[in-house]
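Researcher: We are triaging several targets before committing to wet-lab work. For this one, the compound of interest is copper (II) ion. I'm pasting the protein sequence and the ligand SMILES. What I need is the predicted three-dimensional arrangement of the protein with the ligand bound, expressed as structure tokens, so it can go straight into our comparison scripts without reformatting.
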Amino acid sequence: MASPNIFFTVAVVVVTAFAIPSSWATEYVVGDEKGWSLDFDYQSWAAGKEFRVGDKLVFKYTQGVHDVVKVNGTEFQQCEVINNTVPLRTGNDVITLLTPGIKWYICSVPGHCATRNMKLSITVAADVGSPFSAPGPNQGSQTPSSSARENAASSFRGWIAVIVTFLGVLLV
Ligand SMILES: *[C@@H]1O[C@H](CO)[C@@H](O)[C@H](O)[C@H]1NC(C)=O
Ligand SMILES: *[C@@H]1O[C@H](CO)[C@@H](O)[C@H](O)[C@H]1NC(C)=O
Ligand SMILES: [Cu+2]
């Protein structure tokens, strides 16, 4: 008959493996020190980054000067909010990336998107941090740095699992 401690250990390992990736979510300040502002190249800013489900975008700007609206591809192209989405206006708007796919954000102040480049489009990848999740469809196109990050994450989780299992065995 297996000891209840075995089940406890297995439960701890599983919970640990799931909990670690979410604690590694990244918070991106859009535009870094420039924030959400006029004439900044947000496409270049986004180009080298690997956005994942669970990560956060923070739009920083002077309240009342700009806003942030999540739009679709058409609205992004036309720099126009058609969908009467309520803009975010706090000056420190935090958006958690909840689903994978392409996301579009613009400033709805007239001219700011169309002529002053206040438009950001990013691609959010699925969170592949859990050892139990299947490889994402973007697996083949990953940059070396993100692969390295994942490998490091996997081996770190692996070691945590080994240590937790060892402690669990000691308890039995
Ligand atoms: C458009 O608005 C509808 C209803 O308010 C919402 O469900 C949908 O997600 C919006 N689409 C986009 C691209 O924001
Ligand atoms: C974007 O939203 C508008 C308004 O809801 C809609 O008319 C348009 O077809 C949408 N475009 C895409 C690509 O979903
Ligand atoms: Cu603006």
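Researcher: Any quick observations?
Model: The two ends are 13 Å apart (CA to CA).
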